[in-house]
Amino acid sequence: MVYASLTPETAMAETLAHNRYYGIAVEEAMPRTFVAIEAKLRTIVDFRLGSVRQRIQVSQDRILTVDWRKDVAAGREPITHLIGRAASDIGLEGIIVPSAADPNGHNLLIFPRNLQTGSEIGVLNPNGLPK
User: Fold this and answer.
1) Structural domain of residue 96, as residue ranges?
2) Is residue 6 part of a domain?
């Protein structure tokens, strides 16, 4: 799976939230390299839409408040992982989900094995990446 954010601010918030959860000091976690991508996908489900969440009977609050790390450590599949696995299993190319780390942000989860003809993911400005 490719886990991406829709804005650089959300990507940074996601990274910082992960570091803070595990008590990793910023100076130990940085520097980080962020990569901009462009994705052209045909089949995605957008969980920003209340009608989508209502259809599968899961609230935005449930998605945002689950402590998925704790569930995984306890051997339980978190609701967020269940949603992602189900989306991948039915052949979706991706889903857009709210970010727990950025109240105004959203993430794009892409399932590369499900990419259809004409769909693509590409790194923007790959020559600008550190060597």
Assistant:
1) 39-124
2) no
